[in-house]
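Exercise: predict the fold of this chain.
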Amino acid sequence: VLDELFSCLTAWFAPVLSFTMEEVWLTRFPGETESVHLRQFPEIPAEWCDEKLAAKWAKIRMVRRVVTGALELERREKRIGSSLEAAPRIHISDPDLAAAMAGVDLDEIAITSAAKLVTEPAPDAAFRLEEVAGVAVVPQRAEGRKCGRCWMVLPDIGSNPAHPDICGRCADAVGG
């Protein structure tokens, strides 16, 4: 599986990351005389296509589009500088969209510090996009300080005395 993934990624990224992919290719195959740029794109097996997963991620991207739209307005009004300074409340009234968001790390997807998904009705002033029905966002500033490692704004910065400038998650990642 990893070999197939390597083959596909190096072929796909070669036109964009030309020098990097050439180095990667020659590191993996040191005696190779042919350039990664002379390869054809690999054929992808039909069984790799997962329509259900693609539909789920299309819904996730729709929700993310509403969040990023709300955050752009906040940036324009100078209420936040970056999306990591935000803690948006995402109101979802569409059950299909809510189901698609189950188990998804909203902070990672929306690049925020404390996104919260709620199913309660959104206030009238919430940000909405006409083309994404059933989703409304109330942007708020994240509470806490900025982590020196992940840059998220969190209330637990310095909770580990050995790492006073980073969050608990980052402290665990760097060994504690």
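Check your answer against the key: The chain has three domains: 2-48, 51-143, 145-176.
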